[in-house]
Specification:
This protein is of the alpha/beta class. The protein is built from ten helices and ten strands. The strands form two sheets. Strands 1-2-3-4-5-7-9-10 form an eight-stranded parallel β-sheet. A two-stranded parallel sheet has the order 6-8. It is globular, with a radius of gyration of 22 Å. 32% of the residues are buried.
Length: 275
């Protein structure tokens, strides 16, 4: 904190400028030390243009959009700081208790500018209410991780088509995936979608009988699936049931040359939006 105070003092005290010239790397290093102190980062962002980019990179590395107001607020901030969306690495999109995303015009505007986004998390989302997200995914070429928690799709083909929009994805976490129609096919799952080579696959089944997460795993193993498990390194399934033995054996067979971590948990831990 002492270094932080001296840094701010050096920035503001113009009389030090002729005799005290600090390299940019030092400013960045000090701001990096404050990454867990949001109040200090906010101060750095406000007091100096020199400190602002690095401070904002920490402040907005992970953001959450949970209502129209949150989305409008971020869009306003991004309008005054055009480079801000570029620093976002992780986005949590929550539509509970209502599907506000289809009615919010600023959402597609901010999504398409998050070109450096690495991890997208969706909670309680109805995919058909997000046509803007489908087009945005095509521009998110750096997206490598996707988490779906209680996400609804029109049918399984829509789900696989969505995965095909993210060929850069290497990590997939399913915590409740539901289909409104058409049972999972086991013959022709995809047509013309890009191949996705997963490195990490985590399946946490919910208590709802309609949760299709486990059946999706079976479909991943079909040759026509857009998902390839040949490069899978980390596989986790919770809860692990005796009925899963054959499926897990097939996953192990598909990833025999790459798998380094296997987790079979018999107990379900509660997962909330804040996790």
């Amino acid at each position: 904190m002492t270094v932080y105070i001296l840094l701010v003092f050096a920035v503001f005290n113009r009389s030090l400028a002729p005799t005290m010239v600090l390299p940019p790397e030092l400013f960045d290093a000090v701001v990096d030390e404050l990454e867990s102190d949001r109040n200090a980062l906010k101060t750095c962002s406000l007091v100096s243009r020199v400190l602002r980019p690095r401070a904002q990179a920490h402040l907005f590395r992970e953001i959450s959009l949970e209502s129209p107001n949150w989305c409008k607020k971020f869009h306003h901030i991004a309008s005054t700081s055009p480079s801000l969306p570029f620093v976002v690495r992780s986005l949590r999109l929550v539509t509970f208790p209502r599907q506000w995303v289809s009615e919010e015009p600023t959402l597609p505007l901010v999504l398409k500018r998050m070109v450096n986004l690495r991890h997208l998390q969706m909670f309680f989302v109805e995919w058909q209410s997000l046509p803007s997200l489908e087009s945005a995914l095509l521009s998110l070429r750096n997206l490598t991780a996707l988490t779906l928690s209680n996400v609804f799709f029109e049918n399984c083909l829509t789900f696989f088509a969505m995965l095909g929009l993210i060929p850069s994805m290497r990590q997939l976490t399913l915590r409740g995936v539901f289909f409104k129609g058409l049972p999972l096919p086991h013959g022709t799952l995809s047509s013309g979608t890009q191949r996705v080579y997963l490195h990490t696959l985590r399946i946490v089944s919910t208590q709802y009988s309609e949760d299709a997460s486990r059946n999706i795993l079976i479909s991943f193993l079909h040759p026509s699936s857009p998902i390839s498990l040949t490069e899978l390194k980390d596989f986790q399934i919770t809860p692990f049931l005796t009925s899963d033995i054959e499926t897990v054996r097939a996953v192990l067979s598909a990833s025999i040359d790459s798998l380094t971590h296997l987790s079979l948990d018999a107990f379900v831990q509660s997962h909330v939006v804040g996790e």
